[in-house]
Amino acid sequence: MTAGATATTGAAAAPGPLSSFARFVLCGGGVGLLSSSAVALLAVTMPWVLANALITVASTILCTELHARFTFGAGKRAGWRQHWQSAGSATAAYVVTCLAMLVLHLVQSSPGMLTEQIVYLSASGLAGIGRFLVLRLFVFAADRNRPAHHVRPAPALKGLGGGLRVSPRLAVA
After folding, report:
1. pTM of the predicted model, to two decimals?
2. Mapping DSSP to helix (H, G, I), strand (E, B) and coil, where does residue 85 land?
3. Cβ–Cβ under 8 Å, residues 126 and 95
4. 86-101 pLDDT, tens per residue?
5. In what helix (H) or strand (E) does residue 28 lie, and over which residues does it extend?
6. Taking all residues of the chain, what is their mean pLDDT, rounded to a whole number?
């Protein structure tokens, strides 16, 4: 391969920030809507907390795969590192929404359903933006998905007699 041939690798370029954010909202929102229905259906057969935990794990795995292949343009399956980091960012987002609801109930002893939805969705939106930034800048960043940096060995120096001339005036005895 020549030096000029490295520009064409055959891999598609990663989408820009606005495109990947739109994809993030589409994937995350779509899976979120499906997950909410799945939790409700599964909660008929088991406690709601267990149903929510199972669906959260499954939806996080699914979303990580969608984000790896579609949202951030990696074009391949997510590795273990991406799954663990994505799970960490999902856990952080979950904590943010729980804290928002806790603070709401501390400030207002019995908020109405509309107020709860506004606070929850606002916290979810802010947590989602934070999660998007973490996934884009750290988890699925193009430089982090490349294999370890390959160091090329320096070209061997040719012997001193092969082209390199040393002036006798510069020689040190």
Report:
1. 0.64
2. helix
3. no
4. 889 888 888 888 888 8
5. helix 17-42
6. 76
